[in-house]
């Protein structure tokens, strides 16, 4: 591809003193160089965002117009940006292009979302309104699985509310976010969106920086805890989306043939690299063999390859540490007595390719059940008592999402309501939309994104009390 990628600071293209390599996960080789921001450049980005905040917060109509224009840019340049996304992330080009289009959908949704003013008293004594005010500068730190879409999940509501932003993408996938900053330079006023790139050190500088009043982070539990700790001394507000170990429970009236495609799709979307994907499936003993066979058949038929190649359904795992972790978890399960009904190991050749893997007869206590694998390996767990299955589904530190599947939708919904998670689906999974709040219980995070609730997370409440006395 060989493109010169630059950061965006104060509406201008900015190079850095050094660069770092961005690896194409389909080859395992460095494909591009990204800027490695200095502490002084981060200070400049924060100062620019702070300076832009004063004017940006005042004109709501201009903000909405800018978000709509940004959406149109995403739609118009989806294929161009999609190719960059596939290069650095690995997902098939069609999926990458749809991620860019999805970013446009989210921008368009928030451009039209109401910023409410609530009158809570209006009588002879006083008129009292509750309004929502912007916080100031938002520091946004995003992950490598959906780098562009998850950046916009933060950007769109933050900017609508009147905040400005400094965005830092994952060092595994910085290029699409750098391109985002570039294509929006002519859409957003200087300083409203600044994009800086670098390693973990840059993230630590951001979370400890005196300027931001809010940190919005998506990533691992361990890093999320460090973000919260860094934010605490300055009482910065935080939204933390920290992943999940999402269960799917099949009830005894489920039809394996009818649900297998949706189960497999929801577990292996983006090669299993989705925080709310199905990570473990609980199946009644009477249906167990049929479910394992149906999912294994789909795993063996899946087309895995370079995301740039036509017809590929699943690309590589994004990065070597994650590739090694998935391999370690699968090997641990097999060593403990699990059976690979399909897949079970890395694929031959270069890159971070791993066979779509279905694990049966997984023993209790297996790490791949208790931990978040975040990759193309799915354990299928047998149960004989539904109450026990629900207890096991809830028996982790995670609580992002889950699903229940059965012919009696009312019964399935009742069971879904007993799951300890932020989203409980019935006869579907991964049904996400911009108007629907997304967040988790327990270690899966703090706060929510999307919908008016996500917008409110980028605001402070202010009471305007006008006396009539």
UniProtKB/TrEMBL annotation:
Every Aldehyde dehydrogenase domain range: 18-463
Domain of life: Bacteria
Keyword line: Oxidoreductase
GO molecular function: oxidoreductase activity, acting on the aldehyde or oxo group of donors, NAD or NADP as acceptor
Annotated active site: 241
CDD domains per UniProt: ALDH_AldA-AAD23400 (cd07106)
Classification via Gene3D superfamilies: Aldehyde Dehydrogenase, Chain A, domain 1 (3.40.605.10), Aldehyde Dehydrogenase, Chain A, domain 2 (3.40.309.10)
PANTHER family documented for this protein: ALDEHYDE DEHYDROGENASE-RELATED (PTHR11699)
Family statement drawn from the similarity comment of this UniProt entry: Belongs to the aldehyde dehydrogenase family.
Name assigned to this protein: Acyl-CoA reductase-like NAD-dependent aldehyde dehydrogenase
Organism: Actinomadura coerulea
């Amino acid at each position: 591809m060989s493109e010169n990628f630059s950061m965006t600071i104060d509406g201008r293209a900015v190079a850095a003193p050094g660069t770092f390599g961005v690896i194409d996960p389909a080859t395992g080789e460095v494909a591009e160089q990204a800027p490695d921001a200095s502490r002084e450049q981060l200070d400049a980005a924060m100062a620019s965002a702070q300076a832009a905040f004063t004017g940006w917060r005042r004109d709501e109509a201009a903000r909405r117009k800018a978000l709509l224009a940004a959406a149109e840019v995403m739609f118009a340049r989806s294929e161009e940006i999609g190719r960059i996304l596939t290069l650095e992330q690995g997902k098939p080009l069609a999926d990458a292009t749809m991620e860019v289009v999805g970013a446009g959908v989210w921008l368009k949704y928030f451009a039209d979302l109401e910023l409410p003013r609530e009158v809570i008293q209006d009588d002879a004594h006083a008129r009292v309104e509750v309004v929502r005010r912007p916080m100031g500068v938002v520091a946004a730190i995003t992950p490598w699985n959906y780098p562009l879409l998850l950046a916009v999940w933060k950007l769109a509501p933050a900017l609508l509310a009147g905040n400005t932003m400094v965005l830092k993408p994952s060092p595994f996938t910085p290029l699409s976010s750098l391109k985002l900053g570039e294509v929006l330079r002519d859409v957003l006023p200087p300083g409203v969106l600044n994009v800086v790139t670098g390693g973990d050190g840059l993230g630590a500088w951001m979370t400890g920086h005196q300027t931001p009043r809010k940190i919005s982070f998506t990533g691992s539990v361990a890093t999320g805890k460090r973000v919260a700790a860094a934010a605490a001394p300055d009482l910065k507000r935080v939204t933390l989306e920290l992943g999940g170990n999402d269960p799917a429970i099949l009830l005894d009236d489920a039809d394996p043939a009818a649900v297998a495609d949706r189960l497999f799709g929801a577990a292996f979307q983006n090669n299993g690299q989705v925080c709310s994907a199905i990570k473990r499936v609980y199946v009644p003993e009477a249906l167990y063999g049929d479910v394992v066979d149906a999912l294994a058949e789909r795993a063996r038929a899946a087309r895995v390859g370079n995301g740039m190649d036509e017809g590929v359904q699943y690309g590589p795992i994004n990065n070597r540490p994650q590739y090694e972790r998935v391999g370690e978890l699968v090997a641990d399960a097999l060593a403990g007595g699990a059976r690979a009904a399909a897949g079970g190991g890395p694929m031959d050749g270069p890159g971070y390719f791993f066979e779509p893997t279905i694990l049966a007869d997984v023993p209790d206590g297996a790490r791949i059940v208790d931990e978040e694998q975040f990759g193309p390996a799915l354990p299928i767990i047998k149960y004989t008592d539904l109450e026990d299955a629900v207890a096991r589904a809830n028996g982790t530190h995670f609580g992002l999402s889950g699903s229940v599947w059965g012919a009696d939708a009312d019964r399935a919904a009742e069971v879904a309501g007993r799951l300890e998670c932020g989203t409980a689906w019935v006869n579907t999974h991964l049904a996400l939309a911009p108007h629907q709040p997304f967040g988790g219980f327990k270690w899966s995070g703090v706060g929510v994104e999307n919908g008016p609730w996500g917008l409110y997370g980028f605001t402070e409440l202010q009471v305007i009390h006008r006396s009539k006395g």
